[in-house]
């Protein structure tokens, strides 16, 4: 009896104060399910929409790396998504490179842009950090608009090819393109997972929770923030590149501030501080927008905005965070009831 | 003692001053802390003790004056640089990573000088190489059996102990403790005194505390601050019998710790 009591304390205290993590067996199961869903997605969802979900999922993960794991709200991440969308398109058009090469090139451009932005932004925190990133994204938006010769201005960059080593099915059929492009997204997710579960990731969480303490321990907080900002921009770049190849064009829409807002919405909706949150938020938002758009409904923003407010007010940890907390405490309760050891 | 007092001090401040918009929180403070000693900073609230700590650890830049550590000028260095030079601090208000387990805290502190923190491409299992030392430190402060618990779930006294372990993990030459016994019950205070004595062996310690029992039991030298200035300095016995100190403390509505 007393053993059960102590167990209860041991189990429940950390559940409240630590981000609960599933046990390894469950994590592998989740990973397997996730992979099956990713691979099966274009069978159930219109393939270009499936590709959008995947790209937005990685985009959201890149934002979460800053928001959930480092405590930085970037309100200008469209800069990196969009810069890569254009760069990827230009590389594909002008150099005729296969699309994976173009996407990597776009991500590199995004990272290069993130160096000066990050350098300026990390000196500020909170709303000021958000404003610096927003200002930078707006600057890029106006540049893209003005520099019409290269970007196509308001018409966007048209006719981006899906060159893929002459494999015609991939180049012409969105269904096969999905399978050719999804490895890029999965590699991006893997990189994010690696970062989060690295010594670097541990330092990021320390910085998020208590930057002064991290500095007193000898960690150069600004340098870590710049590094994670650049890494995050790279992931946003991979996502934006895949997106523009998939659509065959890059438009100013990729750089506009509402895109920065949308990705924060997707991230928070799914649940921050968890790599699963981004993909779930992306699936919900992209599918919803697609359904509403095809039904001819014009006020998409009202619907997504309302859902966002409800989720944030009622389920503070987002969809995945809430589901996971519920699952964890249910499993713990069960385990205590059945007297099973953890 | 006398022999050490004549040797070059490990820490020295020269006319250290910090102004906040015309308010002098720390004014012309010149301290000399001999290597291997325990030095207490006392004074009423608002005397500038914590500001002084923040200056010493780079969290604030002084308005004027100099800070020397081991003979080198460290004025204007950043907190993380100062940490690497061998000055570790604890915080007055317990300052931990609430969601992190105790052993993770210490691994992080131990990894700091190695630069491993930059390795975003490696597994954090790498940090396990510090586990043995982390457990040693936790045992040292009496938290060994709570290694896996999240810091946020610790009781207050235990958090203070973890603060101390974190500072020790940096293996500092100079340990700065900001009110190590603040808000503790009597039993915890005595435990902490014993703990600080133990870890002070072979180190130099500067600490701030309001509890005169703590100051009397630990300090070799006591510096009394008032309104940002050094009011008196000497051994605990000398200082507690100093007229000016008695006046200063009685002036504080009989803050009768003494």
TrEMBL record, chain A:
Q: Which UniProt keywords apply?
A: Cell membrane, Membrane, Transmembrane, Transmembrane helix
- Is Glycoprotein found in the keyword set? no
Name its species. Answer: Pedococcus cremeus
User: From the UniProt record, which GO molecular function terms apply?
Assistant: branched-chain amino acid transmembrane transporter activity
- Entry keyword GTP-binding: no
User: Where is this protein localized, as stated in its record?
Assistant: Cell membrane
Q: How is it placed in the membrane, per its record? A: Multi-pass membrane protein
Reading the lineage from the top rank, the first entry is Bacteria
Q: What is this protein called?
A: Amino acid/amide ABC transporter membrane protein 2, HAAT family
Q: Where are the transmembrane segments?
A: 25-46, 53-75, 95-115, 127-147, 176-196, 224-243, 263-288, 300-320
Q: Name one Pfam family in it.
A: BPD_transp_2
TrEMBL record, chain B:
Keywords, A to Z, come to: ATP-binding, Nucleotide-binding, Transport
ABC transporter domain residues: 11-252
Q: Which CDD domains match?
A: ABC_Mj1267_LivG_branched
One Pfam family cited in the UniProt record for this chain? BCA_ABC_TP_C
Q: Which GO terms describe its cellular component?
A: plasma membrane
Enumerate the GO terms in the molecular function aspect. ATP binding; ATP hydrolysis activity
**Designated name of the protein:** Amino acid/amide ABC transporter ATP-binding protein 1, HAAT family
